């Protein structure tokens, strides 16, 4: 299996085709109130409409941070999933980021929706993903705090080999040891690192944003 990104089809399933090489043009900058030295840009991402037609949609992206979701045996095919409250922004997160985002107020959610995100299920084995196990690169569309947990609505862009992400744990600021890492437990965290740049340098993606 190629380590390159694979585009998500209109049915939100990984493509089995060739590696993606996509250029999503954008122009202008957008600022978020109270943010300092953020790397913001306005880009176009493909969005499948209710009619089934895929259209480019403008989105503001902050590349200084990314969200990491690791959710049980989730397949990420239903448009949303649940994060247990005790696993949402409570571990493997810097204290200053926890203080800023874990309250999940309107300002925090607005900011989180600008971060790229990795959506993954737990590794099939401790410290090691399955041979054909994929994670996904995408965005959070909405975060809803409910009595039974945190509902996260998402938009997927590409499938990535989860084995490759395990190999890049250090570069992606993912906590890891010889036989265990963050992909082995259910949680949601935020990392202050440029995910897109790291994936590009690792030759996981060609052109994005």
Overall 3D geometry? globular
Average per-residue pLDDT, rounded, comes to: 82
Number of strands: 11
Q: Radius of gyration from the CA trace?
A: 16 Å
Beta-sheet strand percentage? 25-35%
Secondary-structure element order, N to C: EEEEEHHEEEHEEEH
Q: Distance N terminus to C terminus?
A: 24 Å
| Structural class by helix and strand composition | mainly beta
Measured as a percent range, the helix fraction is: 10-25%
Largest sheet: 7 strands, mixed
Return residue spans where pLDDT drops below 50 for at least 5 consecutive residues. 9-36
Quickly count the helices: 4
Task: Write structural notes for this entry.
With about 210 residues, the protein is mostly beta strands. It has a domain of about 150 residues. It has four helices and eleven strands; from the N terminus they run E-E-E-E-E-H-H-E-E-E-H-E-E-E-H. The strands form three sheets. Strands 1, 4, 5, 6, 7, 8 and 11 form a seven-stranded mixed sheet that branches. Strands 2-3 form a two-stranded antiparallel sheet. A two-stranded antiparallel ribbon has the order 9-10. A hairpin with a 5-residue loop joins strand 2 and strand 3. It is globular and about 40 Å long.
């Amino acid at each position: 299996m190629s380590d390159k990104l694979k585009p998500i089809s209109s049915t939100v399933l990984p493509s089995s085709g060739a590696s993606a090489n996509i250029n999503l043009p954008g122009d202008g900058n957008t600022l978020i109130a109270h943010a300092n030295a953020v790397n913001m840009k306005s880009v176009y991402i493909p969005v499948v409409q209710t009619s089934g037609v895929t259209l480019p949609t403008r989105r503001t992206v902050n590349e200084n941070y990314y969200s990491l979701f690791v959710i049980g045996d989730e397949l990420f095919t239903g448009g949303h999933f649940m994060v247990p409250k005790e696993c949402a922004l409570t571990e493997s997160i810097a204290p200053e980021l926890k203080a800023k985002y874990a309250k999940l107020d309107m300002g925090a959610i607005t900011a989180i929706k600008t971060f790229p995100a990795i959506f993954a299920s737990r590794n099939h084995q401790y410290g090691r993903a399955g041979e054909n196990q994929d994670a996904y690169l995408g965005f959070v569309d909405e975060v809803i705090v409910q009595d039974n947990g945190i509902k996260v609505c998402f938009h997927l862009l590409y499938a990535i080999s989860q084995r490759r992400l395990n190999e890049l744990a250090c570069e992606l600021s993912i906590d890891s040891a010889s036989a265990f890492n963050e992909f082995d437990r259910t949680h949601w965290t935020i990392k202050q690192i440029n995910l897109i740049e790291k994936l590009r340098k690792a030759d996981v993606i060609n052109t994005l944003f």
